[in-house]
Amino acid sequence: MRQDVRTPFDTALERARVAAYAEGEFVGQESFMTAGEIRALAVAAGVGPGVPVLDVCCGVAGPGRFLVRELGCSYLGVDSSASAVSLARERAGDLPCSFEVANVPPLPDGAFDVVLLLETMLAFDDKDALVRSVAAALRPGGRFAFTLEEGAPLSPAERAAMPDADTVFLTPLDEIAGCLARAGLDVVLGEDHSAAHRAVADALVRAFEADAGAISEQLGHRALDDLLVAHRLWIDWLDSGRVRKLALVAA
After folding, report:
1. Chain center to CA of 102
2. Which long-range contacts (CB under 8 A, 24 or more apart) does 100-107 make?
């Protein structure tokens, strides 16, 4: 079962995800980011009351809904998973959020002050096409706030070891900087969250193991095994410096 069929994964993993994060730091994200990191990156990118924000690969939009509540921005979330968007719409309730189901790129029509891409840059093989589309969606002076799994591309052995490796395309920072420059964007902020995300990955592994019986019952043993293998690989790579987790703003 792939995680783009989101509802069963969201249900099965929610208890473990809540347990893995410090109090107040889980807001429905499907990633290693904490609520504090999400808010800080958004503020650094200029997200505030009425600011038009496009959240690319929003998933169930936990971070997006959190930012609408916290910062009062105008919000559109887009994701290729219809099940994720359905959950996002349901959970948004009366919040002023809009959602679209679409493959990216291209991005939805419109002009945005901020484009967010949280924890999903690695899923795009053609990052030049993605970044060009982001730049085209931004108003003059707009900001692109994103996270990057920074490192050399996976070796054949690493690709064989990682479940769903067709969604894991690591990229060196200089290559991303080149993509941004070609699209007319310059990095104005960069922070390294590798150590913090290594700690979150470890906490998630322990929480998944503690709730293994219930997770396996809902998703099957194979899905749980793949989840644990993937998280343990991220822990190893972050420990060794094979991968860095960066938060960046380009303008």
Report:
1. 16
2. 100/76, 102/78, 104/56, 104/57, 104/78, 104/80, 104/130, 104/133, 105/129, 105/130, 105/132, 105/133, 106/133, 107/54, 107/56, 107/78, 107/133, 107/134, 107/136, 107/137
CA-derived radius of gyration, the chain: 17
Strands (E), the chain: 52-56, 74-79, 97-101, 112-117, 138-150, 187-192, 244-250
Around 189, how many Cα atoms within 13 Å sit in the side-chain half-sphere?
16
N residues, the chain? 251
User: Is CATH 3.40.50.150 the classification given to domain 6-250?
Assistant: yes
pLDDT tens-digit readout, 183-218: 999 999 999 999 999 999 999 999 999 999 999 999
- Residue closest to 53 by CA, chosen among 104, 106, 98: 98
The helix or strand, by DSSP H or E, that contains position 238, with its residue range, turns out to be helix 221-240
Contact between residue 235 and residue 194 where contact means Cβ atoms under 8 Å apart: no
